[in-house]
Amino acid sequence: MIVLLTDRRQARRPLVEVVEAAVEGGARRVVLREKDLPREERAALAATLRAVLADVDGHLIVAGPDPLGGAAVHLAAAGPYPPPDLALVGRSCHDEGELARLTREHYAMVSPVFPTPSKPGYGPPLGLAGLARLAARSPVPVLALGGVTPGNAAGCLAAGAAGVAVMGAVMRADDPAAVVRELRGATLSVKTPAGRGGVWS
């Protein structure tokens, strides 16, 4: 499973165009960040992206506790606790302590797995060994984030992740669709244990 996180400041094209291209390449779940936008503008962007994803039976996940008219959110490690009771709730986690606080979340996005300028201030990269350790201890499926590329995505799944999450590799790409296709090809080549994917299966 490939999950795309948005960042219009890194995008080489208008954000909606980048997401459209990523969806063309096979992305089916998108996390809308852009937290600095006014709520009305962000809600309008969410509606536009939901329409893009609806054509392929995809899902928009909104970063933060406000689902902006939807039913899926991705929360920061810092809170809120308990999470809202929605159809899909994820949370960012960086260590075992944060994973231990999970309650009714459906997945955890673990980072940074590899060096990346997008995740400063979270300590040294986990590496595949660190990812494997956290995936083994997580009560929910884990998505690997941070420096994920077509070249290392398969290793993340082999280490125990149910999928990978990407931002810069797609946002900064000249051809976002091609990058997503490469990521899908890399991850589909890895056989994962039945049931590990949970909501990402």
In terms of quaternary structure, the protein is: single chain
**CATH T-level fold name:** TIM Barrel
Low-confidence stretches: none
Q: How many strand elements?
A: 8
Biggest sheet details: 8 strands, parallel, barrel
Describe, in plain words, how this protein is organized in 3D.
This protein has about 200 residues and is an alpha/beta fold. It has a single domain (about 1-190), classed as TIM Barrel (Alpha-Beta Barrel), CATH 3.20.20. The protein contains seven helices and eight strands, in the order E-H-E-H-E-E-E-H-E-H-E-H-E-H-H. The protein has helices spanning about 15-25, 40-55, 95-100, 125-135, 155-160, 170, 175-190, and strands at about 1-5, 30, 60-65, 70-75, 90-95, 105-110, 140-145, 165. The chain has an eight-stranded parallel barrel with strand order 1-2-3-4-5-6-7-8. Helix 4 links the parallel strand 6 (about 105-110) and strand 7 (about 140-145). Helix 1 (about 15-25) packs parallel to helix 2 (about 40-55) and helix 1 packs parallel to helix 7 (about 175-190). The radius of gyration is 15 Å and the shape is globular. The termini are close together. The mean pLDDT is about 90.
